[in-house]
Design brief:
It contains 14 helices and ten strands. With 446 residues, the protein is α+β, with helices and mostly antiparallel strands. The chain folds into two domains: 259 residues, no CATH class; 181 residues, no CATH class. The strands form four sheets. The protein has a four-stranded antiparallel sheet, with no helix packed on it. Strands 1-6 form a two-stranded antiparallel ribbon. Strand 7 and strand 8 form a beta hairpin. The radius of gyration is 26 Å and the shape is elongated.
Length: 446
């Protein structure tokens, strides 16, 4: 229903925008314009939240949703610009207030991306995007000024000049993100990052991705709005190109995340050991958050114990697992590149984990698992779609038995052979890992 109202509002705004605003049409059109801008502001908020959220590694959907509203914003500005009659002053004030709110949100996004840029230490990247980032940031600043004061001829002229220059830079950033533009001096970006780090370092990959994707988004927003202000909503050349580019970039990144789920067992375990070793005295939510930042293509659940709880896992599909001990806190860590299901049926495979919950401390559940701590022994049950049995990933399993560490007080080593744990000298940590956007990845790999 909302979607119908939104589309209907756009069409009516487009029709009215071709004519001088009349007194009879004022109340109807302003209502639609205000509603359209409210939708734009709401979606701009979601874009900002997505870019800032470390756990959100696929901001493409919210960006696409926001980009759909930009041509309408341009039409609203064209429609009400220059309307100085008494009947429309109040209307323009409402719209200007909304445009100011939108400009403030865009300023926050710009500042966030500039701060994120400072965290990225890749000379090979800085050299590739130096000119593009300068032009895009400058034009986006002009967009912010224009939204604050669309009646200013000077701000309008400065903003519209970007129409002729910015898309070249947007396309350049897009090709880098899709790894279509590379050379000996400037290799494929994400392949280079993985090669330099010797594994899929989620922090470096996602920070770089979000910075470049954000930069691409700023450029697209500027180009699309400039086109709409200059030629009207019916001119959609840049909008169509940007929407297609954003979808392709997101698809390419999903393929990279899929590759990262097949990182070697030793490397994945090494990350888990490092996090627990430096955060063992922190709340379980903090530990889970730190793991997720480094391995963002996985979700997981963590159970924390104060004493050795023992444990056994059975089922017709066992997730990867490793146990790591530090001091008197125990965790069980399981991971797969799949989400568990809320309910089981004839097409699902399942696992069951049982353990003594006498010394259960706390947990962080990032998946749909059924757990009963009051039961003796405590039980955790997870169900997967049967497609998981057809997909290759970093399998790190030994047997259904979870081996306990022989002594407390330090992190013990886990060794693997051809992706299988051959000796698990670790203690009880459970984490169930899953890849974001399960259905899309399964389809891609299949």
């Amino acid at each position: 229903m909302f979607r119908f109202q939104w589309v209907g509002g756009i069409l009516l705004i487009l029709v009215v925008s071709e004519f001088q605003l009349s007194r009879a049409s004022v109340s109807t059109v302003v209502s639609l314009a205000v509603t359209a801008l409210e939708t734009t502001i709401e979606r701009a908020n979601k874009v900002s939240d997505s870019l800032k959220n470390d756990n959100d590694i696929t901001p493409g959907d919210v960006i696409l949703s926001f980009m759909e509203t930009i041509p309408v914003v341009g039409d609203i500005i064209r429609l009400f610009k220059g309307q100085d009659e008494d009947e429309t002053k109040e209307i323009m004030n409402k719209i200007l207030a909304q445009l100011t709110t939108l400009s403030q949100l865009q300023t926050e996004t710009l500042v966030f991306l500039q701060n994120l840029d400072n965290k990225i230490n890749l000379v090979v990247l800085k050299n590739q995007i130096a000119t593009s980032s300068k032009i895009i940031n400058s034009c986006y600043t002009d967009l912010i000024h224009f939204l604050k004061n669309p009646s200013s001829l000077a701000d309008t002229d400065r903003f519209l000049k970007c129409y002729y220059s910015i898309m070249t830079e947007v396309r350049h950033i897009g090709r880098i993100l899709e790894e279509k533009e590379f050379s000996l001096e400037s290799p494929k970006l994400f392949s280079y990052i993985i090669q330099q780090d010797k594994y899929c370092n989620g922090t470096n990959i996602v920070n770089t991705y979000k910075y470049l994707f954000g930069l691409h988004f700023l450029g697209c927003e500027t180009a699309v709005l400039a086109e709409a202000v200059k030629y009207g909503n019916t001119s959609r050349t840049f909008s169509t190109e940007c929407l297609t580019s954003i979808k392709n970039i997101e698809k390419h990144m999903m393929s990279i995340y899929s590759v990262c789920t097949r990182d070697t067992c030793d490397r994945v375990i090494g990350v888990l050991k490092s996090v627990i070793g430096s955060h063992y005295n922190k709340p379980v939510e903090r530990i889970a958050g730190e793991i997720l930042v480094r391995l963002p293509w996985f979700f997981f659940t963590v159970f924390k114990f104060n004493r050795n709880p023992g444990g056994q896992m059975t089922g017709n599909f066992l997730p990867s697992y490793v146990t790591i001990h530090h001091g008197h806190t125990y965790f069980i860590i399981l991971w797969t590149p799949f989400n568990t299901l809320l309910k089981s049926d004839d097409t699902t495979v399942s696992f069951v984990l049982e353990f003594d919950a006498t010394h259960f401390d706390s947990d962080y559940r990032g998946m749909h698992v059924n757990r009963n701590i009051a039961r003796k022994p405590a039980m955790v049950i997870g169900h997967f779609n049967n497609n998981v049995t057809k997909v290759s990933y970093s399998r790190c399993t030994k047997t259904s038995k979870i081996t306990l560490a022989p002594e407390p007080g330090h992190i013990l080593n886990a060794k693997s052979d051809s992706g299988k744990i051959s000796s698990v000298n670790v203690v009880l940590v459970l984490s169930i890992a899953v890849l974001h956007l399960f259905d899309r990845v399964i389809n891609m790999i299949s």
